[in-house]
Specification:
The protein is an alpha+beta fold. It has one domain: Endonuclease/exonuclease/phosphatase (Deoxyribonuclease I, Chain A), CATH 3.60.10. Helix content is about 20%, strand content about 35%.
């Protein structure tokens, strides 16, 4: 099972009062994808990302090869990129909007998450591409009882 997630939040002004003041807020389309540490071949990956229509993409399990393909072939569609390739620990954020800053968050001892601050129409958005490790059962602590039949 592959588990991946991306989360975002508005920072700064109160989100709801900001919306009331604006006549119309442009939509923000967000996509997240797990690239499977090189399982998604670059020649198939790049067209999928290009045609997604997403404004903001969080990527998990980004390999060096995939990162190079994205950096070389998607600069027009996603001029703002924060990439930290590294196999299962690799992350990236691709954005049509300016990335003000990015940093790796070491919330897990296994693989870091990626946080990006993005300027979305004058609002700051904090976006986190996260891929926490799956839960691992503690088999030695589990007791399995089997009924005995006499």
């Amino acid at each position: 099972m592959l588990y991946s997630t991306s989360v975002f939040r508005y920072a700064g002004e109160d989100h709801f009062s900001y919306h009331k003041e604006r006549a119309e807020l442009d939509p923000l389309t967000i996509m997240t994808c797990n690239l499977g540490n090189d399982r998604a071949r670059p020649e198939r990956l790049v067209p999928v990302l290009r045609e997604s229509g997403a404004d903001l993409i969080g990527i998990q399990e980004l390999s060096e090869t995939q990162g190079e393909a994205i950096a070389n072939e998607l600069t027009t569609e996603y001029p703002h990129q924060a990439m930290y390739p590294g196999g299962f620990a690799g992350k990236a954020v691709l954005s049509r909007h300016r990335i003000k800053s990015s940093e790796q968050l070491h919330l897990s001892t296994v693989r870091p998450d990626l946080q990006a601050k993005i300027d979305f129409d004058g609002m700051d958005i904090t976006f986190i591409a996260a891929h926490p490790p799956p839960p691992r059962p503690q088999w030695e602590r589990m007791k399995i009882y089997r009924p005995t039949h006499e």
